[in-house]
Specification:
The protein has 125 residues and is α+β, with helices and mostly antiparallel strands. The protein is built from two helices and three strands; from the N terminus they run ααβββ. A hairpin with a 5-residue loop joins strand 2 and strand 3. Helix 1 runs antiparallel to helix 2.
Length: 125
């Protein structure tokens, strides 16, 4: 009987450690994914605006659409994404954006991560 109790406690401890590690890994992975997607989408959009590359973004609405399209393409996981544009200046090439992602952890609790970035892009012209 003592062996069974010790075994149950040991297995429970191992499962608890695995769940904690899985939760930490999931949270870090989602946060990194949102951060990388936000940074990449901002740089890609601002380079198209300032260097007049690609199909040509000609106003603020097209800039927002191009940014959101690039951002969505970069996020691969099942995240409920909210994007807040705090500052956007088409003429000077500045942009400040916050991305909030909500996802489920392995224990089925919702977790929210938030990443805010600011970029000022100088054209090479």
């Amino acid at each position: 009987m003592r062996t069974v109790i010790v075994s149950v406690i040991g297995i429970s401890s191992v499962l608890l450690v695995v769940m904690i590690q899985s939760t930490i890994n999931t949270e870090a992975l989602r946060s990194e994914e949102i951060s990388e997607a936000l940074s990449t989408a901002m740089v890609q959009t601002m380079s198209e605006v300032m260097e007049r590359e690609s199909y040509g973004i000609e106003n603020r609405n097209e800039m927002i659409a191009a940014f959101l399209q690039a951002m969505i393409q970069k996020v691969n996981s099942d995240i409920s994404l909210t994007v807040k544009i705090h500052q956007l200046n088409y003429e000077t090439g500045t942009m400040e954006v916050e991305a909030q992602g909500e996802f489920l952890l392995p224990d089925h609790k919702k977790k929210r991560v938030s990443v805010r970035r600011r970029i000022a892009f100088a054209s090479q012209g």
